[in-house]
């Protein structure tokens, strides 16, 4: 950026531990939030809102959850979609079976249910490490998928196993236009991102990073393994659960176990790889990238108009996806967030190289 | 309880387990030799099988097709080593693992782009007639697969334990940097390993392809092999076999005896839960190398 922090002195501990210590950064973030809350709902088309922005926000939230677990606490998980499914089904059932249950409370309860399931599948992490754990989390993925398709109680005995979501209303206001749904999602995501940012700066976040870097050493300096690891699983699953409920209710409009399959888990994993492992900003950048890439490839395909088949395009899309992941890991293992940081540092010194 | 039926299910499960072992073997091979958990193994199996079937469809005889596909697979392995792994030397294993997930996507796209996404039949010229051993019917194809698997495992075990190259491979798996510093040529070693992995993928693709038909679902074979892998331990060739047998038998028995109680469809998750239970007792799998951790 073309600004320096010269003249901005920290005169209190509070100023020293501020999230954004530089004034210009604060102004930028506030302007961005104002733009997102005030200008976007008025300016953006319905397609942009419900086709791109809402999935982007919801998937960012899920990526944020996985990033807390994998990026900060270092526990690789391939089952994030399972926790999303638990959140979605639990929220649905709370709203269905408890009369007068408000949406926000149901979302929180759905998230808590996902957290509970997360802790359950996090228990093996106390014994198992690394790839063994990654494969073990696949057990969550397949078991949860099976439970929701095999037991009709969860989908209210609907014959197809697919259920449409109830009417969404918050504080007596019914949300039915894309702009209103977008605002609900944005508010939840902004709040939870702020919470996550603070969490990773707290003692809990530092304990996670200590475990990630070397768990034996972390244990030696007195970090309680049981509590810290299980909290990582619980909080991560809570984020994923809320994201899953939003994905089902706000984006899809249906609750369907097929929407939370293994590919969704991989998609979220890719988001944090491309965005940046161990970075809050990275979750958003990665989600934006993964949501936008198919849209852009689609547009490119339309330009070629008929020259290539849709099958060719979908195969090409897969190849580009895979190649990009390899490219990012080889060139910049810390992802887009790191690139952003580097370019900021470069611009700070510009026009001098050092 | 019908013991004859039980035996039949058990034997069927054990033989199916050998097929899982075959996939797991591809993983163990690469893991043991380079410390990379190669998620793209399933995509390589699909690629090999699709390439084989497509070349055979041009009217090329079996052995020539086998040879051409083998050359392609080894070349693919070398290319993977050059393009994907070489830039990533000394990166943490988790980055390497994620890179192979990307590789899996790339190969699945490439295979279908080159050869199309149709389901192909694959006939190895082998008549799958069940034969009767004391009242228990056994699929002769499964026995054939088991025999091939046994030969592969035997030769790989010899290779790893008795040859100079095998020792170099194990050293590389232990620590890239240390291996390089004692003069082991990392690039060559990885090239060899990926070439051999291509060969295992081809054998695997042929056996599984003639069983399931050559189609996209072949990549899902990986998901069957993963529980075998963690059960047996990533670093153990015999572990892959024993793990495969346990998972195969356990899965089939659970499907038959537990399935009806739980309204079916349990074969997707049962192997994972079974493997998880074993892991809780032995965190490195049954035969995995014990890791001593130091601060």
TrEMBL record, chain A:
UniProt key word Translocase = no
- The identity of this protein, by name, is Branched-chain amino acid ABC transporter permease
Principal localization reads: membrane
According to its UniProt entry, this protein's organism is Craterilacuibacter sinensis
Q: Which GO CC annotations does the UniProt entry carry?
A: plasma membrane
**Could you tell me where this protein is found in the cell?**
Cell membrane
- One Pfam annotation, family name? BPD_transp_2
Gene Ontology molecular function, alphabetical: branched-chain amino acid transmembrane transporter activity
Topology relative to the membrane, per the entry? Multi-pass membrane protein
Keyword Transmembrane helix set for record:
yes
Any stretches that span the bilayer, and where are they?
27-44, 50-69, 76-95, 101-123, 130-148, 182-200, 230-254, 266-297, 318-340
Q: Which UniProt keywords apply?
A: Cell membrane, Membrane, Transmembrane, Transmembrane helix
TrEMBL record, chain B:
Q: What's the chief localization of this chain?
A: membrane
Q: Which sequence ranges are marked TM in the entry?
A: 6-29, 36-56, 62-84, 96-115, 135-160, 189-208, 228-249, 256-281
* Its membrane topology: Multi-pass membrane protein
Coiled-coil residue spans: none
Question: What are the record keywords, sorted?
Answer: Amino-acid transport, Cell membrane, Membrane, Transmembrane, Transmembrane helix, Transport
The biological process GO terms on file are: amino acid transport
Q: Which Pfam families match?
A: BPD_transp_2
For whether the record's keyword set contains Transport, the answer is yes
Where does the UniProt annotation locate this protein?
A: Cell membrane
Whether Nuclease counts among this entry's keywords is no
Q: Name one GO cellular component term.
A: plasma membrane
**Which GO molecular function terms does the record list?**
transmembrane transporter activity
Question: Which family does the record claim for this protein?
Answer: Belongs to the binding-protein-dependent transport system permease family. LivHM subfamily.
This one is known as Branched-chain amino acid ABC transporter permease
- Which lineage? Bacteria, Pseudomonadati, Pseudomonadota, Betaproteobacteria, Neisseriales
């Amino acid at each position: 950026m073309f600004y320096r922090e010269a003249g901005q002195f920290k005169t209190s501990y509070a100023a020293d531990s501020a999230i954004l210590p530089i004034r210009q950064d604060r102004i930028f973030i506030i302007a961005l939030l104002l733009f997102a809350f005030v200008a976007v709902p008025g300016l953006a088309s319905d397609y942009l809102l419900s086709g791109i922005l809402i999935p982007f926000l919801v998937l960012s939230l899920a990526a944020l959850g996985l990033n807390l677990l994998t990026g900060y606490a270092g526990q690789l998980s391939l089952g994030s979609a399972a926790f999303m499914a638990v959140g979605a089904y639990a929220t649905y059932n709370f709203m269905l079976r408890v009369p007068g249950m408000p949406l926000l409370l149901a979302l929180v309860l759905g998230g808590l249910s996902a957290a509970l399931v997360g802790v359950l599948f996090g228990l093996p992490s106390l014994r198992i490490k690394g790839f063994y754990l990654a494969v073990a989390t696949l057990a969550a993925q397949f078991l949860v998928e099976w439970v929701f398709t095999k037991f009709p109680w969860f989908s209210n005995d609907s014959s197809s196993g697919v259920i449409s979501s109830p009417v969404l209303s918050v504080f007596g206001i019914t949300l039915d236009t894309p702009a209103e749904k977008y605002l609900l999602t944005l508010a939840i995501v902004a709040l939870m991102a702020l919470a996550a940012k603070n969490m990773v700066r707290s003692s809990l976040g530092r304990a996670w990073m200590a475990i990630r870097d070397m768990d034996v050493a972390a244990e030696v300096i007195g970090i309680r393994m049981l509590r810290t690891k299980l909290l990582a699983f619980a909080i991560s699953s809570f984020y994923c659960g809320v994201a899953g409920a939003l994905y089902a209710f706000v984006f899809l409009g249906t609750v369907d176990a097929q929407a939370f399959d293994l590919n969704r888990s991989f998609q979220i994993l890719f988001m944090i790889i491309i965005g940046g492992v161990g970075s809050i900003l990275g979750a958003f950048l990665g989600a934006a990238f993964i949501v936008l890439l198919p849209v852009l490839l689609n547009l490119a395909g339309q330009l070629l108009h008929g020259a290539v088949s849709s099958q060719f395009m979908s195969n090409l899309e897969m190849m580009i996806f895979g190649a990009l992941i390899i490219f990012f890991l080889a060139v910049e293992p810390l992802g887009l967030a790191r690139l952003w940081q580097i370019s900021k540092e470069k611009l700070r010194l510009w026009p001098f190289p050092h | 309880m019908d013991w004859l039926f039980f035996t039949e299910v058990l034997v069927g499960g054990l033989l199916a387990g050998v097929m899982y072992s075959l996939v797991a073997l591809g993983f163990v091979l690469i893991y043991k030799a380079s410390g990379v958990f190669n998620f793209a193994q399933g995509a390589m199996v699909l690629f090999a099988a699709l390439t084989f079937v497509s070349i055979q469809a041009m009217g090329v005889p079996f052995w020539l097709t086998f040879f051409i596909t083998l050359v392609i697979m080894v070349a693919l392995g070398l290319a993977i080593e050059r393009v994907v792994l070489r830039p990533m030397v000394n990166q943490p294993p988790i980055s390497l693992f994620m890179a192979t997930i990307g590789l899996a996507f790339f190969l699945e796209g490439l295979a279908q782009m080159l050869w199309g996404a149709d389901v192909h039949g694959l006939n190895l010229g082998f008549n799958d007639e069940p034969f009767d051993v004391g009242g228990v019917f056994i699929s002769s194809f499964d026995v054939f697969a088991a025999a091939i698997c046994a030969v592969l495992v035997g030769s790989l075990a010899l290779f790893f334990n008795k040859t100079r190259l095998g020792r170099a491979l194990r050293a590389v798996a232990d620590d890239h940097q240390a291996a390089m510093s004692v003069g082991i040529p990392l690039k060559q070693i990885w090239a060899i390993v990926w070439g051999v992995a291509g060969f295992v993928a081809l054998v695997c693709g042929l056996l599984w392809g003639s069983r399931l038909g050559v189609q996209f679902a072949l990549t899902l074979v990986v998901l069957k092999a993963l529980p075998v892998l963690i059960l047996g331990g990533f670093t153990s060739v015999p572990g892959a076999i024993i793990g495969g047998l346990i998972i195969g038998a356990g899965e089939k028995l659970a499907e038959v005896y537990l399935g009806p109680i739980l309204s079916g469809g349990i074969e997707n998750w049962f192997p994972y839960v079974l493997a998880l239970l074993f892991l809780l007792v032995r965190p490195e799998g049954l035969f995995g190398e014990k890791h001593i951790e130091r601060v």
